[in-house]
Amino acid sequence: MRQLKLDAFLVHGNDIRQVPVHRENNPTNVERSVLQAFAEYEEASQNVYVSRARKDPLDDIPYCRCEARADWRLTCGADCDNRATQTECVQGYCASRTKCGNQRIQDGVHADLILVKSTGKGVSLVADAPINEDDLVIQLN
């Protein structure tokens, strides 16, 4: 964790009573949590593995039994077994054999979200565009 210039720490031997406390009158301290949240926020466009990614055996990959349709977006709809168990279809193990409507996280198709400063609340996560009924709303941490 990075230390911000706004942070003040006691050195061994210092007395806590000697440190002036005027948090509500000092805008630097009031805004500290917001500034710290933005300073520590790091956007990731894809998953970053800190170790070797775990490989699933081929037998563990869920194969969907949906009926392939002419429009791949309609394949693997609400009646898909994988979708019902909140599992995305894997290319090559899906009825469509290529793409289907149950691969939105893999394709990066989801609602646009942004961080904004909220009055009295610190930082909030809000939608950057209108969200339709069947849109995927996801924030990975």
TrEMBL record:
Keywords: Chromosome, Methyltransferase, Nucleus, S-adenosyl-L-methionine, Transferase. InterPro entries: AWS_dom, SET2_Histone-Lys_MeTrsfase, SET_dom_sf. It comes from the Eukaryota. It is found in: Chromosome; Nucleus. Residues 59-109 form the AWS domain. GO terms for biological process: methylation. It holds the Pfam family AWS. GO terms for molecular function: histone methyltransferase activity. SMART domains: AWS. This is AWS domain-containing protein. It comes from Phytophthora fragariae. The lineage of its organism: Eukaryota, Sar, Stramenopiles, Oomycota, Peronosporomycetes.
